Amino acid sequence: MTFRHCVAVDLGASSGRVMLARYDARSRLLSLREIHRFTNSLHQQDGFDTWNIDSLEAEIRTGLNKVCDEGIRIDSIGIDTWGVDYVLLDKNGQRVGLPVAYRDSRTDGVMAMAMEQLGKSNIYRRSGIQFLPFNTLYQLRALVEQQPELVAQATHALLIPDYFSYRLTGKMNWEYTNATTTQLVNINSDSWDEDLLNWTGAPASWFGTPTHPGNVIGHWVCPQGNNIPVIAVASHDTASAVIASPLASHDAAYLSSGTWSLMGFESKTPYTSEQAQRANITNEGGAEGRYRVLKNIMGLWLLQRVLKEQNVSDLPTLIADTAKLPACRWLINPNDDRFINPHNMSAEIQAACRETAQPVPANAAELARCIFDSLALLYANVLNELAQLRGKPFSQLHIVGGGCQNHLLNQLCADACGITVVAGPIEASTLGNIGIQLMALDELSNVDDFRKVVTHNYGLTTFTPHPDHEIARYVAQFQQQRQTKELCA
Q1: Which of 100, 151, 290, 452 could form a disulfide with 286 if both were Cys (CB 3.0 to 4.6 A apart)?
Q2: CA distance 372 to 378
Q3: Nearest of 436, 441, 409 to residue 423 by alpha carbon
Q4: What is the 3-class SS of 360-399, one letter each residue?
Q5: How many CB atoms are closer than 10 A to CB 69?
Q6: What is the CB-side half-sphere exposure of residue 214 using CA atoms within 13 A?
């Protein structure tokens, strides 16, 4: 067959989209068309921050139906979403309880308890996963302790993308790349870690064996009666985004930029040394046995909240105003837990600046400048940690995802990191989703083959570092101070 039509359902923490891909196997031309886009956000229900999962499912079905209504025969469907969150089902496949979101406060203090009872090094050695207070490991323990009545009713637990695939097909699947984000998969066996799962108190019978991306979960019957394969893609959106990152060499790093920023590199082996643990590096699963050695950075979540609070709808104008402001006047640590889900992000940023005796950002542009500069400096720090971990520097940084459209932040990143930045593609998670589908349909041989298709079809923008920029000088001064402290220690 010359043409393939694949549908990618790509759900993020702030929006979702149903995208139609058309692939010409002869010319290797790949095009994307947005069929349906919708918003996603946290909802307060019964005292919890939750996802409106029924609404999301309805939007997914609307998008799929729109494709079919055009008379297009879909070859396959794939779904990717954020990680760690799950849905409980009873023995009849009906949902139990609420789909509580990772930003909910129910896990407060649970990670510290896990470290004390299991040992931090023990948890890391088993999972290889970064310590984040909302990992599924801690969510399940919170569930068992706070809502034991739900445990008695539940028979299965499905991560979010697997849940939507189940709703389309009636078949259950536990996809590997997303399963690794839970901090419950043993890094040596690629299956659930018995000791970690036992600690949560959740029954092991809730979980089936994790499967690597590329298998057909089941079939969705479209309104026209066609049985369409639903393929288990790399269902964690970052795993899909990395697949679509046109990494030019083994010395290239990636930054998937969106609500979260995920910075890392690919490796055939995980990094679980004491050095990696101290740096809180994660080893999430990827396609073809590749590990995503990376670190989570709070990302543009801070900006999204500020835009909403400050009633800003014209982002390009705000960025232009932000670019005129001095660099490094207002700085925060974006990864501070205080920014996970504060009542008011603008006020929280202002409080953090006030507490560190800095000037206080007073308006939307100043708050945005604080966020951009702080992110760029954190990117530089994380890139340095990753380079030290692997024992050699990186030659390039590829920024993909929606955040790569922010040219100011891209340039600040290049300046702070002192490295060439290559931006694009924007729809990386969607493209990676499509890539696995095309491999499952035998149209492409592997990830490297697909990356050639991405480079062939999507324009990339290069940002060259300016060593004389204010933020570059700030980084150089900071590094010099750190080296002096290390020598005097």
Answers
A1: 290
A2: 10
A3: 409
A4: CCCCHHHHHHHHHHHHHHHHHHHHHHHHHHHCCCCCEEEE
A5: 11
A6: 15
Angle between helices 364-390 and 470-488 (to 10 degrees): 50
In whole angstroms, how far apart are CA 20 and each of 401, 440, 460? 17, 17, 21
Six-digit token string for 349: 């940023």
- Long-range contacts made by residues 355-363, C-beta under 8 angstroms, separation at least 24? 356/331, 358/329, 358/330, 358/331, 359/329, 359/330, 360/330, 361/330, 363/310
Residue 17 token pair: 């989209």
Exposed e or buried b per residue across 368-393, where buried means at least 16 C-beta atoms within 10 angstroms of its C-beta? bbbbbbbbbbbbbbbbbbbbebeeee
Encoded tokens for 152:
């008695």
Which H helix or E strand runs over 117? helix 110-118
Closest CA to 184 of 206, 155, 166, 152: 206
Entry pTM: 0.93
Give the type of residue at 18: V
| Residue 222 backbone phi and psi in degrees, to 5 | -75, 165
Rounded to an integer, what distance in angstroms lies between the CA atom of residue 268 and that of residue 286? 10
Q: What is the pLDDT of residues 72-122, one digit of tens each?
A: 999 999 999 999 999 999 999 999 999 999 999 999 999 999 999 999 999
What pLDDT, on the 0 to 100 scale, is given for residue 478? 66
User: 237, 314, 337, 468: which one is catalytic?
Assistant: 237
Is residue 10 annotated as part of the catalytic site, yes or no?
A: no
